[in-house]
Amino acid sequence: MSLTERGLAGRAPGERRDDGHTASEISNAVVSLFAEYVGRGPTRARTVLGRDLVAVVLEETMTKAERRLVLEGQDETVVETRRVFQRTMREDLVAAVERITGRSVVAFLSDHTTAPDVSVEVFVLAPNG
Known about the structure:
This protein is α+β, with helices and mostly antiparallel strands. It has helices spanning about 5, 20-40, 65-70, 75-100; strands at about 45-50, 55-60, 105-115, 115-125. It has one domain (about 5-125): Muramoyl-pentapeptide Carboxypeptidase, domain 2 (2-Layer Sandwich).
């Protein structure tokens, strides 16, 4: 089935899926995990769902201490520390997305930038069906 036949959201005609609810649930789970691991969660989170892809964009994720380090020119230190946290959280993040979507995650990619304070968590899902 072509992309045109499936529609922009990657669904076949008549296939029902509450993407808004799923996206919101994933955003909430990721924010909660960040808060648990880092001590505070991002102030904004947006999840975008594709046929075999989940992308979570997080904004204002840095702690007060990390913001201070950035002001002192230690951007790379903050980014490297965040990458360690993201690798540490990997198992829990993947488990949350698999639980919520009901699909296996075959790849997880994560990165962070300090200007602007944005991070992205990307989950590639196993083909459905």
